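Entry 14. Ran structure prediction on the chain below.
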Amino acid sequence: MHAIDRLSFDRRVDALFDRFTRPGSPGAVVGVMQDGALLLSRGYGLASIEHGVPIAPTTRLRIASVTKQFTVTAALMLAEDGLLSLDEPPHTYLPELPPLPVTLDQMMRNSSGLPDFLELLRLGGHGLDRPCRAEDLIAAIARNRHLNFPPGSRFLYSNTNFLLLGLIVERLAGQRLHELLATRIFAPLGMTRTLLHPSLDTPVPDLATGYLQNPDGSVRRAPHAYPQGGEGGLISTVEDLLIWSRHFDRPVLQPADLAQRLTTPAPLSSGAANAYLRGLERGQLRGLATIGHGGLWPGFRTEFLRVPDARLTVVVIANLGSIDPHRLARAVAVEALRDAKAPALAPAPAAIAAPAIEALAGTYVNEAEPSLFDLAWRDGEPTVIQNGMPFALAPRGDGWLAAVRGAFEFALRLPASGDTLEVALGAGRVLPFRRLPYRDPPPADLAGRYHAADCEATWTIVPVDRGFAVNVAGPLVTGGPAWPVRGVTSDLIEIETPSPWLTVTQMAGVERDAAGAITGLAVSTGRIKRMLFTRVAPG
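Output, structure tokens:
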């Protein structure tokens, strides 16, 4: 860029982040690189409200799942060294795990079907705000025999895949993951501000504090007490992540084709495309292919975005949970590409008008999946709430509205009329969801005690005023707030899990024997599908 173009670009980016510069606000830091030149590196808001410390390009923040590509890189290095095979199952290297027909390559691509260990523990009443040891996480994975689907047949995001990859790297390399990453990746690239820091107790210089936003707009410190590893434990800066991105264009590390190995796609077993690569995901920005990954941890959100054809990288890291780096990074990329000579951005798809969504607003269900979502017009855009999580929809340009959310498969096609929506859920699956005119009450015979060996959780469903609630006990916790139960259809219920960070929901299909008696619940969450809770005692 010429000097005056750079000045214009800086001011346009400042405008995108201006709302985070008000006094007392956490904020974000953004870094932009094109053709190896640093176009912008700037912080907005406070790294620490308590101490009035501003966010700067050198501020360290937790980058959460952006860690995954580095864990995969370490595993690929060991494969090149002849220490592991990507076609082997994880129990080959971690014999304490059950023998499941999953390969390391499927784990790298989030197509293994292994349930997310965070969800396994949550079903037993344990959350990120409660203290936990690394051994507890491994035990949760080791007791599970459940697969969400035949390995390789679908994509479903799971932190289990990358926690295990990190442990396999440690076992085979004979050193801790943070040591291997430091010596084989960070030091050779000059990423001096990046480290894997499993412990949450040890102070880290220049590390920002993470915050959550309260309903009244005020903020509070984000609670989190889980140790982190290969799935999300990295602390870094925007400038270090730009250095990492530059390595995709100018390889330094071995193997020399590392970037290609990370970004080469592999179809699912059905032949359908899998947008998740190896610790990275591919997407599009106004007609241009993108490669990148997001990160989410209580109080921290990250977006690492590459636009290879434009030789452009944008990194945004925030220390406030309500900030959306996914959108901000793409908005910054659009501004940068306005000033670029080539390639040109495609026109933005036509916006959807509020009446088109408002006419279809309501609750939609597919009992066979099972899956439920609410569709509404909210904050000026189409919004879906699924499993308790709201996300926006945006026109994809082909008649579909897709989730504005990384590493997530959800798109719907708007009909001219009617109460059925076609919803694409990945792996080539397009399912009909019907609008519910009303919700049925929970089944009258629902009360009882249910147990799932795969997560060692026991749910006791008890009658309460006008319905039922779940008292939860798991391997790490007993007691806590009861989980409300809501009916959906005659034998499908929705169960809410309250949390200081995120309140989520899960679906449970009621299973019955030939005589009509309840035998169990098939429970589906965002990252666990149809896990059986067997009824061990009636109410």
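The longest helix spans residues 3-17. Will compare against last week's run tomorrow.
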